[in-house]
Amino acid sequence: MIRRPVAWIVAVVLFAEAFGVALLNWIMANVVDGQNMSLAGLDPDAMVMSSKVGAVVFGLYFALCGLVALLVALRDRQPAGLGRILLISVAVVHGLLAAVAWALIGRPQFVFMVVMLALIVLLLVTYDAQPQPTPSADPQDTDGPEGPGDPEAAEEPKDAQEAAGSPLTPPPAPTTP
Known about the structure:
The protein is mainly alpha-helical. It is built from six helices and no strands. α1 (3-35) packs antiparallel against α2 (44-75), α2 crosses α3 (82-105) and α3 packs antiparallel against α4. The chain starts with a helix and ends in a 13-residue tail after the last helix.
């Protein structure tokens, strides 16, 4: 119920961050190139190239994370696999950026990063469970592939039959004669 609006907000902000981070790195590269600056004896051309590569890489990273959040919003399902890993990593990045923002930039930027961190974590941990069907009191149909009155099924205890449907116990392995 709450996951979909949070996913939309996270997706929009991550796309905006992707554009902003890429633009900021690209502008910094142009400033370094125009001023012919050097930091601790590094080659200015290497600094320009690395900043432009960083602009592309981080812009694509945030855009990919925004795409995962957008897919969560559209499908209304939790991310799985690589998408979940990307959202966890972008949450860690926002936590680190929040610490840097507190130390170097100021409180408003820190609050923004912490709010984004909270929204991403909320997106990761919210799960709207589907209503489970209530178990009926009627006995289960014991007709298997072998037909009714299977002697092996009659020998199996009732607890084992109940455990076979449990999500924690795997079903019995098929045997060959």
